[in-house]
Amino acid sequence: MPVNNILLFYVTLIAPISIVLFLYGFFPIAHHGDTIASQSDVPNYIGNVSINKHALYKPIITRLIIMVIDGIRWDFVAGPMGNITMPVTSKLLANSSGCLLQVKLQSPTVTMPRIKAMMTGTVPNFVDIVLNFGSKPLHSDNFLLQAKKYGHKLVFYGDDTWLSLFPHMFERHDGTTSFFVTDFTEVDNNVTRHLQHELNYNDWTMMILHYLGLDHIGHVEGPFGASIKPKLQEMDEIINQIAQRVQYWNTNGIPALFIICGDHGMKDSGGHGGSTLQETTVPFIAIGGTRCSHSKDGESIEIEQIDITATLSSAFGLPIPSANLGSSFLDSIYHLDDTKRLFFLYYNSRQVLDRFQKLVYRKSQIEYIYRKYLDAVNLHVTWLKTNERSNRMFETIVSSYNAILVEMKDVLISSIVEYDFRPIVLAVLFQCQVSKING
Where in the cell is it found (predicted)? Predict the structure, then answer.
């Protein structure tokens, strides 16, 4: 065979291989798995101690409203601007009727992957930017799937991305499109027009609202445009309407929780999709809880967006979705007795450890985390068996579980969002060879 033919064959073979290697390294694959969690995954034992999981892991709430304000930035609520544009919300936070937490999220800061993060507890990546245009149904385990599976009735109004991701999930729904970015008004009115009669119905247990108007204004005018203030005031009035009903339910024996959050923020130029602080920091407001924790310096507690999945699951007493990497912060918005709080931490740690063992390939890393996990569990068992349960011992167990959850989460997030440079370097070397041969 002539040398030129051999070189041609080599180039034809190696060129597509190098492209595949580059894409594999540049776009890390998100591992969701196909396992669907069930009640059998909620543990009956802690170590060798039998526990009553039905008493410890039962619903804290029977109704949930999630209001997503697309593109809302942290400083729209927490900064001086919030007192002016959202006075009702600010008052609810000031008198402890509401609890404000700061949500950190990863890029890409576009809607579809952020919805996935909130509902699955795992981190989408840049491949999802492409998939954001024409979202396909989500088949992996998620909070809405668990809610539907265990008899909850869901209704939805707003961004039709939810309907693309979760078809056949909602008893009633009305989708709006984000395509017409110059529409600041009708896109939100089409959500709000359903609100009053849904608040009067009692046949649902979960309602999701996703408002697009603020995001549209950001794209056209930026975060400091003239239309931002009246839009935030409009959102504030809607929050007031829902908050009053939630407070009425709670007073009359219907435990309810109202969540207001952003899917992502917006840059000072008005867009989003990147990793600036303004895009990756959004507010999370909980109304209807029984407490509000703060950090040691009095600031709002910082959480990850993927923590929302485990938190809402534990509030409803639902199995935590199998792909979840997040840690529940339910104890930041509800008073939990010590036994229940430790059980939540144990179950959450055990579930994330299962993902960690499946997704991390370094044996030494797995063994290190597993030893720390066993230490926490053994201390937990000792606490359960003793009659003298000191507060110091309790706090040590809490800290141990939380440290393990944070460590596992950090490793797993890094493995999903960071580039794999080994195949990228190999792809570049192959391409250099191809260029040299062609030259």
Answer: Endoplasmic reticulum membrane
Query: Cis link prior to 108 (omega < 30° from 0)?
Result: yes
Phi, psi of 207 (to 5 degrees): -125, 130
User: What whole-number distance in Å separates Cα of residue 212 and Cα of residue 305?
Assistant: 19
Tens digit of each residue's pLDDT (9 = 90 or more) over 280-296: 999 999 999 999 998 77
Distance from C-alpha of 383 to C-alpha of 371, rounded to nearest angstrom:
18
**Cα–Cα distance, 373 to 170 (Å, whole number):** 38
Strand partners, 63: 256
pTM (two decimals): 0.89
- Residue whose C-alpha is closest to residue 110's, from 271, 270, 304: 271
| pLDDT for 25 beyond 80 | no
| Cα 148 to Cα 256: distance, rounded to the nearest angstrom | 18
Residues 6+ apart with CB under 8 A from 14: 430, 433, 434
Mean pLDDT of 162-178: 94
Say if residue 331 is exposed, middle or buried (CB neighbours under 10 Å; 0-12, 13-18, 19+).
middle
- What distances in angstroms separate CA 278 from CA 80, 134, 292, 407, one per listed residue? 16, 26, 24, 25
Going by C-alpha positions, the residue among 295, 326, 294, 292 that lies closest to residue 312 is: 326
Distance in angstroms (rounded) separating the CA atoms of residues 206 and 170 = 9
Check: CB of residue 205 under 8 Å from CB of residue 62: yes
In contact, 289 and 93? CB cutoff 8 Å: no
Give first-to-last CA distance, the chain, whole Å: 21
CA distance 309 to 303: 12
Mean pLDDT of 227-254: 98
**311-334 residue pLDDT tens:** 999 999 999 999 999 999 999 999
What is the pLDDT confidence band of residue 309, given thresholds at 50, 70 and 90? very high
Q: What is the CA radius of gyration of the chain?
A: 24
Side chain identity at residue 249, one-letter code = W
Mean pLDDT on 359-366: 90
Average confidence score pLDDT of the chain: 90
Average pLDDT over residues 425-433: 66
CB crowding 287-318: b at 16 or more within 10 Å, else e: bbbeebeeeeeeebbebbbbbbbbbbbbbbbb
The C-alpha atoms of residue 247 and residue 191 are separated, in whole angstroms, by: 22
For 35-44, 246-255, 411-420, which range has the lowest pLDDT when averaged over its residues? 411-420
